[in-house]
Amino acid sequence: DVKVTQSSRYLVKRTGEKVFLECVQDMDHENMFWYRQDPGLGLRLIYFSYDVKMKEKGDIPEGYSVSREKKERFSLILESASTNQTSMYLCASSPTDRGNQPQHFGDGTRLSIL
Amino acid sequence: AQSVSQHNHHVILSEAASLELGCNYSYGGTVNLFWYVQYPGQHLQLLLKYFSGDPLVKGIKGFEAEFIKSKFSFNLRKPSVQWSDTAEYFCAVRGGGFKTIFGAGTRLFVKA
Predict the structure, then answer these.
(1) Could you tell me which residues are beta bridge partners of residue A49?
(2) Does pLDDT of B95 surpass 90?
(3) Closest chain A CA to residue B42
(4) Which of A14, A84, B37, B72 lies deepest, with the highest CB count within 10 Å?
(5) Is B97 left (phi over 0), alpha (psi -120 to 50) or beta?
């Protein structure tokens, strides 16, 4: 079974800090994604990556960056955390396919910025 | 641009009631459609998916969904809900490319 592991379930940081959220998958998937989940807004895509060192902006990339140095690991970076980045962050992975494969999600990181 | 609309944000049902959650999408081409479920404190997981063939698809735990192309809809159904179905349900659409667009979610609460 696919396992997507996010490094922290809960994280509290201060405004202005640089924050790293880590995600590791164990199924050799090419594609990895970062979403934020907010009540009433569903999941919104921040960034995704379809290969090592490749990244693409999603719908809400402002204030975030990502890193994919190894196939199994995809990091989300908040360059200078702000209170409006308080949210649940979800990582997902999927294999390269014709579009009919689902994404596999981690448990999420609930991030609070004070 | 692709978009997904889920009709209800909150649904409250009694056990044994029937469930139908609406989902409409906007996309002009061929789509792959998904329903995901997130139980309290758990990660999102796939409930069912449609990509071709029979428009009535069956998923886990007695759920099914019907793809009606002419209505751009992919509604989720279950004939008799259980307390354990309390969760948040997300409809998702993937057209060309890597991106999957998720609806805002529907929170279902089933009264025991």
Answers:
(1) A32
(2) no
(3) A107
(4) B37
(5) left
